[in-house]
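Late entry, evening session. Most of the bench is empty. Finally got around to the prediction I had been postponing all week. Sequence below, unchanged from the version circulated by S.P.
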Amino acid sequence: MLQVTFGVFHLVDSAELKTLTMAATSICRPDKDLLITIHTGNYGSVERILSFANTLFRELEEAEMGNALPEKVDRPRISELVSDTYLRFWNNSPAMLGPRQS
């Protein structure tokens, strides 16, 4: 039971479905009480925990299928973006990146 509870806790903690489905990052944890309940083993039976975990897995799979992210990271583009961001910050200048190359 402890291992299952611990696994579901980390699933919920790391899933961040809002981030995947809405492309927004949330710093506050509105699900804090749920995470504490799972972590302390007070969420319920193993069946309830597994059902909850399976629901989250299904939602993650659906979010993955519906996203527009490429399969591979464009490392040169990311490197250019990071470099430009640093330069603009330190030089207080406008963005230098042009339109995205396809």
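Two things to note before I forget:
Residues 70-102 form one domain.
The radius of gyration is 20 Å.
Will write this up properly tomorrow.
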